[in-house]
Structures are given as C-alpha cells and as structure tokens.
Amino acid sequence: MTDQTATRETPPGDAGGDAGGNGKAPLLEAEHVQLYFPIKQGVLIDRTIGVVHAVDDVSLTLGEGETLGIVGESGCGKSTLARCMVRLLEPTDGTLRFRGNDITHLGRRRLEPFRREAQLVFQDPVSSLNPRKRVGQIVGTPMRLHGMDRDKSRARVRELLDLVGLNPEHVNRFPHEFSGGQRQRIGVARALAVNPRLLVLDEPVSALDVSIQAQVVNLLDDLQDELGLSYVFIAHDLSVVRHVSDQIAVMYLGKLMELSPAKELYAKPIHPYTEALLGAIPIPDPEENRRRERLVVGGEPPNPISPPSGCRFHTRCPRATEVCRTSEPPLAVYPGGHVAACHHPLNVSAEEVSAATRSPLSPLSAGDELPSGQRARSEPPDRHGPAGIGTGEGDAGATASGGT
Amino acid sequence: MAERLLDVEHLQVTFATEDGMVRAVDDVSFTLDRGEVVAIVGESGSGKSVTVMTLMGLTRSPNSRFGGTARLGGDRDLIAASEEQLEGIRGQEIAMIFQDPISSLSPVHRIGDQIVEQIRAHEKISKAAALDRTVDLMERVGIPRARDRARAYPHEFSGGMRQRAMIAMALSLSPSVLIADEPTTALDVTIQAQILQEVAQLSKESNSGVIFVTHDLGVVADIADRVLVMYAGRVVEQGTLDEIFYDPQHPYTWGLLGSVTRMDREPPRRLPAIPGQPPSLVNTPQGCHFRPRCPHAFDRCTEVPPLEARVQDAPDHLDRCWLSVEEKRARRLVDGRIGLATGSVTA
Amino acid sequence: MARFVVRRGISMIALLFATSVVVFAFFELIPSYNPARAIAGRNANATTVAEVSRKFGFDKPIYTQYANTMKLIFTGQVIDYQDDLNVVDQFKQRFPVTLSLVIPAGIFWLVAAILLGSLSAIRAGRIADRAVMVAAILGVSIPVFLLAALLLYLFAYKLPWFPNTGYVTFAQSPTQWAYHLILPWFSIAVLSIGFYSRVLRSNLLDMVNQDFVRTAKAKGLSQRRVFTRHVLRNSLMPIITMFGLDFATLLGGAALVTETVFNLPGVGQYEASAIGNLDVPPILVGAMFTAFFVVIFGALADVLYALLDPRIRLTG
C-alpha cells in the first residue's frame, strides 16, 4: 500500500480530468460516457418510448496501479458503468480509452487483447462459478482460451490458488466445497489467470460475512502491491471502499456527484448526498451513537426513466433550493483535487467556493453556474439542523424521518 | 420490573442432513422484556436466524429435533405447542419481519390483501374494516397514498416500500413480541437508515419487545438494549449494549468489533480480519467452537467453556471463554483499540 | 392488448403457412408417392392415371399445386382421394365427437393431477407419495394403444361393464353418451395425469421453501390456507401452459389412437385413416387445424397466466 499512500498525497491533476498526478499515463479513461437502455413498445413494430438513463455522461480516470472506488445505491448506474469499463456493454455515447487507445466501439475480435488486460470480478461468488466444474478447470479455462498449453496452465493454476490463499491441493474440488470467502478467492484467481492489469471488482465482498470481507479486501490489497494491479472497486456504501481506494467517485441516478481523493471525501464530504451516505452508516459505538444526531435522508431514488430536472438529488436533498430544480450543477473543482456537482456545497470556505472552477469532467448538459460563495455560506432557512457527522461547518441537518 | 414476555431456556435445534446431524442451535437461553430490544449478532451459520425461526415454529420439519423451552408470557411453551396453538400465536402475539422484502411477499397477491389476510386470520371482522385498518397501518409506516398503494402488487413497490409493508403487516395485530431478522440487510444504505428508525420508533410506540437479528454491529449499537453474540450455534457472550461494546469478554466479539469499519475515525492501514473460516456445523471443533480461529487459544479450550458471569459486579454479563478477565482485558487491545490480535493460529 | 392480438394473429398466419408448406413438401419427397395412382384405383392403366393426374392438376409445378390446394381448402371445396368426400365437411361433422372426447377428459386429468400431485407433495417421502409416483410413472410409460386395448379387453369384454365401441351423441342421450365415453376419457387422461402430477409435485415442493410461504405461515394462517392460497396458487402456472398445448393438439386430432381403438368417428380417426392411405388433403387440413388450436390455446394460456401473475405482461 506504500504506493497507494503516495498517490493519495499527490492528488491527480487539478482538473481531475487528465492523468494521475504521479506522471504515469492513465490506464483507463472514460470521457462523457453515456449508456441508455431503450424501452421499446409498439403494436407491430417496436418504437422506443423511453430510455433508462443508466449512466449519464460520466467522466473518470484511472491511473496505473491506482484504485478507483465507485459508490452509490441501487440504480445509480455503478454496475452498468463497470460493465462499460470492461466493454461488456458498449456505451451509447462518449469515449473509453485504455492506455490511450480508443476502445469504445471495438468489435469482438479487436477487443481480444484488451480482454486479457481487463477482467471483471462478480459480486456473488456462488452464482458466478459453474457448480459442475472443478476449481482447476474454472481457473484454468481462461488460460487455455488464450492459448496456454495444458501442462503450463496446470502449474499456473496451482500458483494462482496459492497466491489467493487457497490450498493448491484443492484443484479438484467443486465450488460448493468451499465457503463464501473462499469462493470469492476462486473468482479472483480466475480473473488473474490471464495476467490482467486491471480488475473491475463489482461489489466483491458485499455477499460475505464481515470478518471474511476483511480477509478478501486485504488479499486484494496484497495482490495490488505484488502485481501492480489497477482496480475499479464498486460498492454500495462508503464503508469498505475506504480501505482500498485512492480516489472515490460517488454516483446518483447515473450522474457523478462527487469525485475526491479517498481521505478528503471522508473528512470533508462536499456533496449533501455523500454526506447522507456517510450519515446512513451507523457507528459501532453506543455512546457516540447516542451523542450524534442521526442524519437520515428521506424519500427514495426517483425513477431513472424520467430523472428529475436540474440536480438529480434535489428531490431528497435537505439543502435544495430553486436553482437546484432548474439548473444542473457542473462539477466544480475545489482544493485537494476534490470535485463535486452541487449548488450548495458543504465543508468549503467562501474563498474556496469563489476560487472554484468548472471541471472538464462536468456533464455536457450541466449549466455554467458555479456555486457562489454567498450561497454556500448561507444556510437555507428552516433547514438548519444539529451537526451531523461531518467535521465542517455547513452541516445539513436532514432529520426527516423516512419517507414521510 | 418490566413484564417478561419471553423466556427461552436451553434451546437446542438439530437438523438431520445427508452429511450428518447439524447442531444449528446449541443451548441458547435468553429473556425478553416489554419495551426492550435484544439483538442477536452473528455471521452466517451462527444459528441466529434458526433461533428466532424456531420461536415462530418455522423450522419444524420431519428432519428437525428440538430441545429446551421457550415460554411466552410465562406459561405457553412455543417449542412444545401444537401447530394449531402456534397458528393462533403467530402474527397475533409474535410477528416477524424478514430479511428480503422481495421474496417474502407473495408475488401474486395485492399488498393490501396480504395484510388483510393476516388480520382476518385472527379477528372476525369484515373485509372492509380490515382494509381500513390496513390503510391506516400503511400510512403509519410511511407509505404515501396508502389507499391506492394497498391495491398494488409487491413488484410495483420499491425495496424500501416493501419492507415498510412488511412492517405494517407485522404490527397489524399489535404483537407483544416483534422479531426482525436482518430487516435492513437487503436495502440501500439511506433506506436502511429510514427503516431502522421506523422499527425503533414503532416498537417504542407499541411498547412491544423486539428481537433484532443482525450481523452488523453498527446497527446493534443503534438499536439494541441487550446483545447476544452467537458463533457456530452457541451464544459466546451476552450482556448489555455497553458491556458488549466497552468490556467485551470473548475473543470472537473482539474480532467482530475490530472488523467493523468506523466512518468517524481514521481507518487502520490494514482491515482487521478474523483468520480462517467458520467451522462446518457437522464437524464442529471439540471444546470451544472458536478455538481453531483464536490466536489466544490454549490447552483448556478443548473443553467447552460454560456460559457464565465472569466479570465482577456484572451478573448478567455472560461469556464462554476460559481466559481470566484480566488476561482478556490485556489481550483485547490491538493498536489501542479492541480487536483480535493477529498471531499464530493453530489449524 | 391490441399488440398482443395483432402479434398472435400474425404468428397464426405464419404458422398455418409454414405447417401447410412443410406437410405439402413432405409428401412430394416420398419417392413412390403418386396420388393420381391412388385416385385412379388399383387396376387403372397408365392412360387413366395420366388422365387423373391432368384432371387433378398433379402435372402442374408444385407451387401451382400448392396454391390450388390452398384455394380449395379455404373455399371449403377440397375433397379427399380415398372416398371423394369433402374434407371440410368431414371435419365439421367429426369435430363434435372429438370435443366430447377431449373436453371431459381434459377436465378429468387436470382435476385428478392437481389432487394427486398435491397429495403427493403434502405427504412427500411417505407411502402415499411413493404410491402415487409409481402409478404416475406407469401411467406415463404405458403406450396409449396398449392401455386402450387393455381397458377394452378388461372392462368391455371380460367384465362387460361398458359397451365395447361406438358413439352416441349427447343430444340423443346424455347418459348413453357418457357411458360410451368413460373408457376413452380414461385412456386419454392417464398419461397426462401421470405427467402433470409429477410436474406439479416438484413445483409444489419448490414452492414450499419460498420465503413468501414462510411469511404466510408466520402470519398465523392455517396450513390449509397456506397451501391453497400461497403454495398451490403459485405452482399452477407451468401446468397452465402445458395444458393449453396438450389440449390444443388433442382437439386437432392427436387423440387418433384412442378414437381408432374405440371406433369413435372423430377428427383423429379420419386423420388416422388418411395417414394410412397417404391421402394428402385430410392430413394437410388436420395439420393446419392443429396449428390453429395451438396458437389459440397458447394465447389463452398466456392471457390466463397474465391474469394469475400480475408480474407478467402480455407481449407478442
């Protein structure tokens, strides 16, 4: 993790748009990536009657050897984005670049070399492993597909099992003979079979017990150090990603809400949605819990077929005002490489707000109106609540009890 | 003293499987008073769900065997009760909220009808009256436009709304005991926080006793008055919320406490993990079940430690560990916080 | 709904077209097949055959023959080669007999399969279950012609409880009608009872472990109510599709063995004799008749499905 701490100290380019700050070429770049799923219906011929805005103009960059955490609740588009990043899905619009090469619309055959370098690890270790295949076959098949001979692949399988902390003697066992954590290790070994540079991990530990989660996360950490891998780590909350990520992107309803070096994000969440996500995680400390006023955001995510106008979070946001309804906020750049799309940012000073610039990561549909220092300082009337969890001064106190 | 709702003594549940006898619950005892929230914490296979399902009579099958008693209201034993007696108790006196609100509601019946069905199974009232009550309940748990929504089917509800409907159903007959089996695990974090508030508030209003089953110590800290920590079918430690969090006696509890992430603190460089895998319930280790994963294990751990009070002046703080209290207090600190030391582990 | 009807209409036309083309082409491929010879009779000489061939248009290109035949079918003028009878009239006359055979048999096998499948699932692993399942395997494996012949032998010949063959219309005498049909109903239903009860049993056993069934129990519902309203209700869906298709093919003439053995003048009996004589028009009409019912009952099953399961939307 030494590597990683270094990158944490050096935030990527101030605009956040270009390569990581350590001068290394970015491994994967997503520029204004959009994925719409059409909804078709018709009497005779299907017409498109609407679209699900699964991923809506998201730009992100992953440096070599770095980990990018992508966090959001169900329906935010994180898994769809992950599948775009390994090109299991083809974006509707925007550009995906791997080592500078455009891979957005490459066909099956021309994607072959990329497939070897980028692998996806699935959430559910039970359903993503073929129950009728032995572990040796599961891990060995990708190698054989990529042209390794039988003896070599057999030796390599044992090596890989050892690497992920499984007993190499167990090559002939079936997946059901392993526990959940061990099965996820098999999934990781399978992904590593073709020596990839990039692993996209789609909620790799969500289905595991807490004590086992930590084992798998630590394993991923070690593998990154040993093999110099880059990770995209998808998660539904902000707890586990904290340990692995250099940068964290927070998504809501297909849009990027906030992008920040990991440490910054937890210390000073700028977007109210990020703060809501942080506040939703209970603190495992009874006294602290009694002391803290729980911040519970009411309502539910709106329908992604007809997302709200302006800022997509405004229907649930305790700080929302008229401007949030009418104008989509651009991503504004704050000190420390911290980027957020909010008209009423938290935890930033007036000077920082007035110095903020529009990030090139901003969606093309976003307005030009950056938050003004004035607005950032003044609390919206009747919204003032007791301090939440943030350390900053501008805490939104949404104590609305659920859904009412 | 508060009214005792439930008194579980030496509960045992064994399942006959193809691989052998599985002792899913091994000698679990606890009580539940009115107005109290008891949390049962553990990981998969710990027996926490089997324990509460057994109280509802939902684990009965030709392959299961039971031992011990679970007295409801001081007299009726839920374990020995006939199926007919249980039918009158379930839903009426003990109600349950399940983990997965998607699969736990019938896909082919309207939400409102499913709640009406429960009310009418226990009370002789007209359909219309039951529906009125259902709509009230749905409004109470925060379902907007309840009269319309009662006509919807489960797939037309979001996950959070389905869980609210489950809560409305569970509370429909004002049960004295409410069992919540991981009610927020399948939900998004922001919705999870809403539902947690809802359960806490409604159970307080109705003054029932709540058994809350979860794997998440954060949730426990939020809601519980007393805590049972289960591991491989046994209770390894039980006590008040503060005892469990600030003076934990069992190494497994330390490990659990150590591996929860705290959003309000700088994270440790490496996530604290508990080494090894939970044991198979068919071949449980001899003695203390946690022994093979415990860095503090010693010779005596091959004998099963009794669940008893070991801490002075805390007669209700029980644990199953042979270490002395002083040793425990010294060994549980890792880098200044409670956790399980990484050390040599046998097996 | 409009979309559903339009799409099913289109698939009906496509299926009728495909079926007729395949059947027509199939007979062209039989090497020794010569309908003109069949029509002209056993002792006809070459000249007569050639004349018949010209008269019936068998010397024309195959697509012209196809088009002519279709025209005759849809104008109701097509005649069979064996007896010079109007095929469409034959189907019209015989269809009520097939209906008398198939509708009661269908109801019988459905009810029996639900009862036996439920019994088997409720008593899973016990003697009643085993007995039902062994009987079900027997029912599935015994060939229909053998079963029909056995029934005739045992209950019409050895023990003369039932008349051995023949058909009495419902209008003539409802009791005689039923009396003559009991053995045929039974011989058609046995196979389906065996098959359906096994499928239902396994559906039920899957369903019993579903979370929502556990919820139903936790609500304090009686066992009977949990079973009928929650378990059975959700287990019947796959049976509906199976029933729709089986019923449709039987209406189209798939009961030909039973009709022949019991000498019932139904659609199937007519088709059976047409197949024996390589008589194309009845076979062609029979195939299209079956295809028609398959589409109709497939659509009905889907509508029923959508009514029973609100998650399913009708699509084409």
Report on the structure:
The complex is a heterotrimer of chains A (404), B (347) and C (316). Chain A is α/β, with parallel strands linked by helices and 404 residues long. Helices cover 30% and strands 20% of the residues of chain A. Chain A has 14 helices and 13 strands. In chain A, the strands form two sheets. A nine-stranded mixed beta sheet of chain A has the order 6-7-8-3-9-10-12-11-13, sandwiched between helices. Chain A has a four-stranded antiparallel beta sheet with strand order 2-1-4-5. In chain A, helix 4 (135-145) packs across helix 5 (150-163), helix 4 packs parallel to helix 6 and helix 5 (150-163) packs across helix 6 (180-192). The longest helix of chain A has 18 residues, at 210-227. Chain A is globular, with a radius of gyration of 22 Å. The model of chain A is unreliable at 1-22 and 373-404 (pLDDT under 50). Chain B is α/β, with parallel strands linked by helices. Chain B contains eleven helices and 14 strands. In chain B, the strands form three sheets. Chain B has an eight-stranded mixed beta sheet with strand order 6-7-8-3-9-10-12-11, with helices on both faces. Chain B has a four-stranded antiparallel beta sheet with strand order 2-1-4-5, covered by helices on one side. A two-stranded antiparallel sheet of chain B has the order 13-14. In chain B, strand 9 and strand 10 (234-240) form a beta hairpin. In chain B, helix 6 (159-171) packs parallel to helix 7. The longest helix of chain B has 18 residues, at 189-206. Chain B starts with a strand and ends in a 9-residue tail after the last strand. With 316 residues, chain C is mainly alpha-helical. Chain C is globular. Chains A and B meet through helix 6, helix 7, helix 10 and helix 11 of A and helix 6, helix 7, helix 8, helix 9 and helix 10 of B.
